[in-house]
Design goal:
Helix 1 packs across helix 2 (43-66), helix 2 runs antiparallel to helix 5 and helix 9 (222-249) packs antiparallel against helix 10 (265-286). The chain has two domains: 42-151, no CATH class; 153-287, no CATH class. It is mainly alpha-helical. The N and C termini lie far apart (88 Å). It has helices spanning 19-41, 43-66, 72-92, 96-114, 122-141, 145-150, 155-180, 195-215, 222-249, 265-286; strands spanning 184-186, 190-194. Strand 1 (184-186) and strand 2 (190-194) form a beta hairpin.
Length: 287
């Protein structure tokens, strides 16, 4: 009796999220919920807590990246204390620029008296002073604009809108780039980013801003619905590239690993910090 051979058709397996994307989404959902809770119900203390945590976490990651001499741990703690001083001082007395100048003088003095350890390495030692000043400007001063945004008219809604623009830009760029990305945006610095992804991120930010105005923020001017997401979203993407330049300069893949699926705080909030003063300027323009 001849055997009958039957073809078996295997049902296609549904696409599953990769473990990396799953971790990224889970971390994002928890982080967004906590951040929004502090923005909406935390008041002045809540918003300063967000700004201070971001500043100290990013400063710590930055210091681990740039300090390479034997006293790198001591310098890291000195820079962290300076960032903390700016954050707390801006909460208690204001005057962020005066605090920054004071920290500049204090850091220069510290590097002066610690230079005797580096008799043969004065040039690298002085370069690390320059890194310290840059880190203060980048990661201690810029986060102080978050409480200013929160303290403006309609501050809570503007703050939520700011974060929505950043999240929408980042998410839209990620998925648009994976789906349609062909032309590299800046391959020297970030080989995976594409122009199609960048445009998709801005389009997503526009749609999210429009929805936010229609549902929650009726007082937002119509011109701001177009202008703010385009400007802030563009600057946020530039901030992302700037942080990529920093990592490439120091041959680092991620600034940290504390946020599963996202890397470190500097990886996740690079665009946020970079675009904070631009968002504040937009609010001043439209209110």
């Amino acid at each position: 009796m001849a055997e009958t051979v039957t073809d078996t058709v295997t049902a296609p397996t549904p696409n599953k999220l990769s473990p990396e994307l799953t971790r990224r989404i889970a971390t994002g959902v928890v982080g967004i919920a906590l951040l929004l809770a502090l923005v909406i119900w935390g008041g002045t203390i809540g918003i300063f807590l967000i700004a201070t945590v971001l500043s100290l976490a990013m400063t710590d990651e930055f210091a681990r990246m740039v300090y390479r001499l034997p006293d790198h741990e001591e310098k890291r703690y000195v820079l962290l204390f300076a960032a903390w001083f700016v954050a707390v001082g801006s909460l208690l007395v204001g005057g962020e620029y005066e605090l920054l100048i004071f920290c500049f003088l204090a850091l220069f003095t510290y590097f002066l008296f610690s230079s005797r350890r580096h008799a043969e390495e004065l040039n690298p030692h002085f370069k690390e002073l320059m890194f310290s000043i840059f880190g203060l400007l980048y990661l201690a001063l810029l986060p102080t604009y978050l409480p200013k945004i929160h303290g403006a008219n309609w501050g809570v809604l503007w703050t939520i809108e700011f974060f929505l623009i950043n999240w929408a830009t980042d998410t839209g760029a990620y998925f648009a780039g994976k789906k349609y990305g062909k032309v590299k945006l800046y391959p020297l610095i970030s080989p995976k980013k594409t122009r199609e992804g960048a445009l998709g991120g801005l389009a997503t930010a526009l749609v999210v801003t429009l929805a936010f105005k229609l549902i929650f923020f009726h007082a937002m001017p119509w011109l701001a619905v177009i202008f703010v997401p385009l400007v802030v979203g563009t600057v946020a993407q530039i901030g992302d590239l700037c942080e990529s330049l920093l990592k490439r300069a120091f041959d680092v893949k991620d600034s940290g690993s504390i946020l599963p699926g996202h890397g470190g705080f500097l990886d996740r909030f690079d665009g946020v910090v970079f675009s904070l003063p631009i968002m504040y300027a937009c609010i001043r323009l439209f209110t």
